[in-house]
From TrEMBL:
Designated name of the protein: PadR family transcriptional regulator
InterPro entries tied to this protein: Metal_resp_DNA-bind_regulator, Tscrpt_reg_PadR_N, WH-like_DNA-bd_sf, WH_DNA-bd_sf
Domain Transcription regulator PadR N-terminal: start-end pairs: 14-82
Top-level lineage group: Bacteria
Species annotation: Alkalihalobacillus trypoxylicola
Length: 106
C-alpha cells in the first residue's frame, strides 16, 4: 500500500537525518529511502528549497580526488524540524485513533 507523501513530511525526514549529522546527497537519499520511496532527482530540489529557506547550508570536502557536497542543518532548520516533528506526532495520533476504531493509541 502506498500513501501520498507531502512536501512537509519529506522536509521533516530530510531535516531529521541532518539533525543527527552532516551528510552528502547520496547518503542522505539512501537514509530517507529507508522510510519512503524517493529518488535523487526528487531529493535535490528539496535540498535546494530547504537551502533557499535557510534551513540548510552546504560545504564541500575532498573525497577520492573529487569534491563531495555536504549538507548541514542551521539553527532555523532545527526549529523547523521541531515544528514538523510536533505536527507529525499530532497527525499520527489522530490517524492512529481513526485506524484503531476511535481508541486512543498508547
Amino acid at each position: 500500500m502506498s500513501f501520498q507523501l507531502g512536501s512537509s513530511l519529506l522536509d521533516a525526514c530530510v531535516l531529521a537525518v541532518l539533525v543527527k549529522e552532516d551528510t552528502y546527497g547520496y547518503s542522505l537519499t539512501q537514509q530517507v529511502r529507508e522510510v519512503m520511496d524517493i529518488s535523487e532527482s526528487t531529493l535535490y530540489p528539496v535540498l535546494r528549497r530547504l537551502q533557499k529557506k535557510e534551513f540548510l547550508t552546504t560545504y564541500d570536502q575532498p573525497f577520492q580526488g573529487r569534491n563531495r557536497r555536504y549538507y548541514r542543518i542551521t539553527a532555523s532548520g532545527i526549529e523547523r524540524y521541531e515544528e514538523l516533528n510536533k505536527e507529525w506526532v499530532e497527525f499520527k495520533h489522530k490517524i492512529d485513533s481513526v485506524l484503531m476504531g476511535g481508541k486512543q493509541s498508547e
